[in-house]
Amino acid sequence: MSQRKGEGGAILRHRTKHDDDLPDEIVLDILAKLPAKSLLRFRCVCKPWYSSIANPNFISTHLLNHNHHNDHGCVIHIPRHIPVLLPSSLPGSSHSSDHVCTLARDHTFETISEFRVPFTFQSGFPHFVGSCNGMLCFTSSRSWSNVVYLWNPCIRKFKRLPDSQLFIATLGIGFDSQNNDFKVVGIPRTFAKPKPPPEVEVYSLSSDSWKRVELGISWRPNVVSHKFNCALTFPFVCGHLHWMIEMIEEGGGQEKRDTSMILSFDVNSEKFKELPLPDDEGNCITKCVTSFKGKLALIKFGNGTPPRITLCSIWVMREYGVIDSWNKLCVLSIENLTDLIGFTKDGLLIRNRSRPVSINSELESKDKSVLIDPETLHEKEISTQAKYGFDEATYMENLALLDGTNVVSY
Asked: Which residue of 5, 152, 242, 276 has the lowest C-beta tally within 10 Å?
């Protein structure tokens, strides 16, 4: 056995001297098309491969290659703990904080594999912030926690970010394509009245640090209160992160009016701007931004008839940043809507609570998840393993977090 190893090493050393060996550029191009798990093994071949595979440019090329393949055919379901007092959380009872994320195909929702969240929080449960290019971002479900993690389940590595200096209440994650850098944007909560423009901190994975960024856009002077609609994760579309801000403004007298704005952040230039909303005077209780097939989308929620019906108007911005390109895709009439999870590649996923059912002589509420195609309005019930709701994110292979400071393998 030792002789065979020695011969293999001699052959490897001898082959590097051949004139007909493949050029390094072609070798790297071949490697960049391989699965991430294979590349983790191939880092052990030699020192040049070890360093080349961890190079940011190689990681970016590998990501682009896999973006064009079938990686978008998978979604990852992240369990969501709803903020209600469950029997298991009463004193004297055991309550599991284990979070198991399920990787599934978005056509059939057939389970491919499962990932256990490898980190815990001293208070609260892991709260899913969002995903970008296969990188998942979590914070604590406790609103006063500043603990943030980045997690790449593909290569089984995670990283806790340094603490921000601000009391962050809202987070989003995006990818700086110019610098091959992941960025986390944090917007803090403020209790001042009238409400000043939000302060912002931006974390850069390449520098492993936060920095303060000015809003840089005009802020309405009479804002009494504002909130970020967190019904869905904040979408990263066309290189920009987006938030829906719902505000209450004072008028000339005592009257107040509800207004909304879409705040957009260019992750490359780190500049903010306000995007126009579609011109629609229909009934609206609240609204949120999301993404639909790579485009910015808006969902407006309104009351239907009878009262248990919710009307969901779905708008899509066909050309990014152009107000005239807003197009109303459809209006969904949904009965007993309890949880809207978001878009997959193929449709809109709705979590719908049915009537109580008898299970072992006890009444329990049975949930069902329905996949609705907003273009054909075709509905399909699907089965999931999630218990109390879940978030979903597009899943793809990525080598980010392969190396770096304070990166933990598990």
From this structure: 5
SS3 212: strand
Contact 313, 328 (CB under 8 A): yes
> Taking the chain, what is the end-to-end CA distance rounded to the nearest angstrom?
31
- 100-105, strands of its sheet edge to edge: 111-116, 100-105, 74-79, 390-395
Q: How far is CA 314 from the centre of its chain?
A: 20
Q: CA 405 to CA 119: how far, in whole Å?
A: 17
Give me the pLDDT at residue 81, please.
64
The three-class DSSP label of residue 55 is: coil
Contact (CB, 8 A) for 47 and 396: no
pLDDT tens digits along 175-190: 999 998 999 999 877 6
Cβ(81)–Cβ(388) below 8 Å: yes
For 404, residues 6+ apart whose C-beta sits below 8 A from its C-beta are: 159, 205, 208
* Residue range 39-65, pLDDT digits in tens: 999 998 988 899 899 888 899 899 888
d(CA 48, CA 359): 60
Prior bond of 194 cis (ω within 30°): yes
Q: Which residues pair with 170 in a beta bridge?
A: 187
Helix (H, G, I), strand (E, B) or coil at 326: strand
CA pair distance 242, 271, nearest whole angstrom: 12
Q: What are 134-192's pLDDT values in tens digits?
A: 899 999 877 667 899 999 999 999 999 999 887 777 899 999 999 989 999 998 776 55
The pLDDT tens digits for 204-244 are 999 999 999 988 887 777 777 777 888 789 999 999 999 99
Q: Which amino acid, 281?
A: E
Closest to 55 measured CA to CA, from 180, 164, 212: 180
Q: Is the backbone of residue 94 left (phi > 0), alpha (psi -120 to 50) or beta?
A: beta
157 Cβ neighbours under 8 A, 6+ residues apart? 151, 401, 402, 407, 408, 409, 410
Query: Which residue type occupies 18?
Result: H
75 burial type by CB count under 10 A (0-12 exposed, 13-18 middle, 19+ buried): buried
- Measured between alpha carbons, how far is 233 from 157 in angstroms, rounded to an integer? 22
